[in-house]
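Notes from hallway chat w/ T.B., transcribed later so I don't forget. T.B. wanted the structure written out for a chain they're using in a teaching module, and asked if we could keep both sequence and structure tokens in one place. Agreed to drop them here.
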Amino acid sequence: MTHEALTRPMVHALLADGTTVCIRPVHRGDHDQLQGLYEEMSPENLRLRFFAVSRRSAEMAADRACGTPRPGYRALLAETKGQVIGLAEYDTGGTGTTADISITVADGLHHRGVGTLLVEHLVSAARAEGVTAFTADALSENREVLRLFADLGLRTTRRFDGPEVRCTIALDDSDTYLTAVEERGRAADVASLEPLLRPNAVAVLGAGRKPASVGRAILHHLQSGGFNRRLFAVNPGASAILGVPSYPSVAALPVTPDLAVLAVPATAIPETAEECGKAGVRALLVVTAGLDADQSRALTATCRSYGMRLVGPNCLGISHTDPALSLDATFAAGHPRPGTAGVAVQSGGVGIALLDGLSRLGIGVSSFVSLGDKYDVSGNDMLQWWESDGRTDLALLHLESFGNPRAFSRTARRVTRRMPLLTVDAGRTDAGRRAAASHTAAAATRTMTRGALFTQAGITATRSVGELLEAAALLHSQRLPDGSRVAIVTNAGGAGVLAADACAEAGLTLPPPTPELIDDLLAVLPDGAAVGNPVDATAAVTEEQLTDCVDRIMRHSGVDAVLVALVPTALAVATGDDLVRALTRAPARRTKPIAVIRLEQALPVELLPADGGTVPSYAEPQAAARALAHASRRAAWLARPAGTVPSLDGVDTARAHAVVETYLEAHPDGGWLDPRTCAELLGCYGIPQSPWAWAETEDDAVLAADRLRGADGRVVMKGHWPGLLHKTAEHAVHLDLRGDAQIRAAFRDLETRFAGLLTGVVLQPLADRGTELFAGVVQDEVFGPLVLFGLGGTATELLADHAARLAPLTDNDVHDLITAPRCAPLLFGANGARPVDLARLEQLLLRLSRMAADLPQLAEADFNPVLATPGGVSVLDARVRLLPRRPQDPYLRRLR
């Protein structure tokens, strides 16, 4: 057993029924409990486990699990409330990459996912230690364990030998396995949230007599909101509060509540949570703010120990508007309107704004959770709840921090194919990030990284609460457009110009009408109408004419959406209300989205009642255009096949790990790799590098230059010493060197100017002409590896023409990376030039992504410049920094 295996910390995770269990390594002190686990098993289960029944089987099994640590052996146990309920082990025998596995689950706890959860954690640990396959012997009649192996989502083969079966399980890191893990996690997560969001009984602790009491306000909200199940207050000084029966303690309640709302002072939170756990409460909502570090740790530990899910602390509360429940445990000013939007926020103020806005629009709320400081229940939990609740068709998030972004991204990619998922991208500036950190004690995240996460997951990211509501109104009421082509119709030329400007600024296109469409529209519009794009129907347009005009545009194949800008006029032919009514008539027959702009409208966005639906109306052209642009981008994301991570040949991951481990053994604190180690690491991934040579003396430099000179005989010399990052800025580069004399002079110059620093030089042939690009990786502490790409050379930081995507990159991500920067036209052959070798450029990015995903120790990599020509792609200069980091499995099922 490795040192890493021994020090792997305990984690908490959910069983299939939502029960919280602790998964941890076995310790010597577990011997008696493990022996008891076996001794309490039925004779039949013991026979299936050991192939025979022996009095010594239990003791021997406990001895093995608790014995002296040995290489290649790992044992994990599952326990709940201090009781061991399962054990899983693997043993490689000290050599090789195949391990025998065994699983034991306590009698009475089968079919709850104990064994499967333990195996998932063993799989993660085994992969980290280089194990590639598990083997297991089982009796052919042991259907439960055979089904467990078959349902893991891993490639499993069986070989029968009489009454026994030999199972071999390949530990491939496949999407099939991740999907199976996700599905098990989703089911367990939803089950664990039932006591929180569908409680049969609720108790409010801290509901005082004073009207200003937060607990009293929540109790009033629960009562006035029509909560139709058992409701209690806990207050030693009152027998009833607001007519709700009150008891001196949780233990004194006539029934154990599923959900306890804690509105007590921060100093009382740990003790109160402990009281709830002992009483059997299954979920806590902690609205109290101001917990210090010790109180926070105690609260979290108590919730994990007793298996309680936790919302908060420092939050507004939760609501679930299902009429069968009518749960409103918040202290907002009013009750949310029942509806179909799921809302999760970290900021209570943002939550109130969204609740009010969705209620005003008529969209309403299916469930609302104010996550607060987000100790436990997160946005990822809520996505899985909304995916399964049968009521939610629109998801709105406001997150200031992310606990497990890669797991969140996979969940979001799945959920957003079923419903729009919108967020406010909070903390975009330094000031905003500082505010987020002080408000939620969360680490700041970079704008580019968040943008990559949202883009790759198909999340509609807005810049404000107002913009989020604007987009939600259109996505809720209209079908998605097939593209970004918009036709504008107006009854006032100036309004049409404003709308056209807004559409162009939002990235929408305004195609000119075809001659056929022009004739078609002129036939129904009043004299003086101008049929372009925008279509100026004039102030004389009637209700019928406007309806006919819009319908004819809708039938035109060259238009994806219609934007109608209306202003009230004094003409008697049609009032503003008449024209709006024309647009809300029979919307079901319209196959494309429509939105209205009314410059006189008091509210930023409204949903106008229509026959069989609603039509969004905006007070500003920019708002309407932004909403249409969001809808267009969502449609394009949905229409695109899900990306796949391509397989790569010529990758030697084992050698790469060895290179990293060797370097970190010599440099425990990490650092920048020297050129030879850097080149070796890049070679493990088949990353193309320009020919180069290392020289530490003047004579070696001359010999190296002779070997490297091309047809023109010119070479480049670059100085090197540990910590040198910007060679050009330090004037540590000599270009266009010819002949031995120039090589010697350049070497002496570097040796003289950087005496005491210089450790050697790198020589390369002078590169051909081409496009200088930049490719790199930053290992974000929260989000994982971020791959960057864009314009390179000495001006790369000044111009900042970069795009970014989170690794591992799919084929779609690579395409987006190459096409997103402003320099992209240079790659595709601008001004008659030949395009660069795009296939090899894609390979470079995929291999860089693979390296970053394989090696958590890779803190950052900088390839600048990368030379791209029609004939190929090569890295001219590479820098790689390593740090001593332990690998983390971002998809392993565990609670925060």
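Follow-up for T.B.: Residues 657 and 855 are 7 Å apart (CA to CA). Might be a good example for the class.
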